[in-house]
Each structure stands twice: as C-alpha cells, then as structure tokens.
Design brief:
There is one protein chain. Helix content is 87%, strand content 0%. The chain is rod-shaped. It has one domain. It has three helices and no strands. The protein has 100 residues and is mainly alpha-helical. The longest helix is centred in the middle third of the chain and has 43 residues.
Length: 100
C-alpha cells in the first residue's frame, strides 16, 4: 500500500471513529435533555449509543493493532534485507558471539 493511500485510510478511520463517538454522545444528550420523560434514556437509545461507541473503539483498536503489526513486519523485513546485503557482517557477528 502506498504512503498516500495509507494516509487516506488512516484519515478515513479517524473521521469514522470521531463521527460515531460524536453521534453517540449527541443521541444520548438529546434523549436525556429533550425527549420526554426528561432525564431518562430509552433502551433503544442506549443500545444505539453503545453500538456507536463499540464501533468507535473497534475502529481505533483495529487501527492500532494493524499499525503495530505492520511496523513489526517492516522491521523484520529490513533486518532480512540487511542480512542479505551484508552477509559477512552477519556471519562475523555470529562468530564473535559464539567465541565470547
């Protein structure tokens, strides 16, 4: 995935997460303060709010997990490429660690 597409995907995930969180808080506030009986939230509103908050958490959690795994994979790939480019350095290090 190119850097530009990754930035666009990250931005889209952030927008969806913020929108779902804002919608959940807005629905809860409207139900709490403007819909009779005042001060009471209906069960359907609670379920919608909870689903929106779970969506927000899932998007951010998946993003964090993906970013962590991607960075780990990238680091491992760079290590393998470095070993392939400089095999003598790697073998010298291995021999030094064995002798010490």
């Amino acid at each position: 995935m190119t850097q530009k597409k990754q930035i666009e995907l990250t931005r889209l995930q952030g927008i969806i997460a913020v929108a779902s969180f804002t919608s959940g808080v807005l629905i809860a506030a409207v139900c709490l303060f403007f819909i009779p009986p005042l001060g009471e939230i209906a069960n359907s509103a609670i379920s919608i709010v909870s689903e929106l908050l779970v969506l927000c958490g899932a998007i951010l959690g998946v993003k964090a997990s993906y970013d962590t795994k991607f960075r780990k994979f990238e680091a491992e790939l760079h290590n393998v490429l470095d070993e392939d480019r400089h095999p003598t350095r790697h073998s010298e290090r291995s021999e030094e660690s064995i002798t010490t």
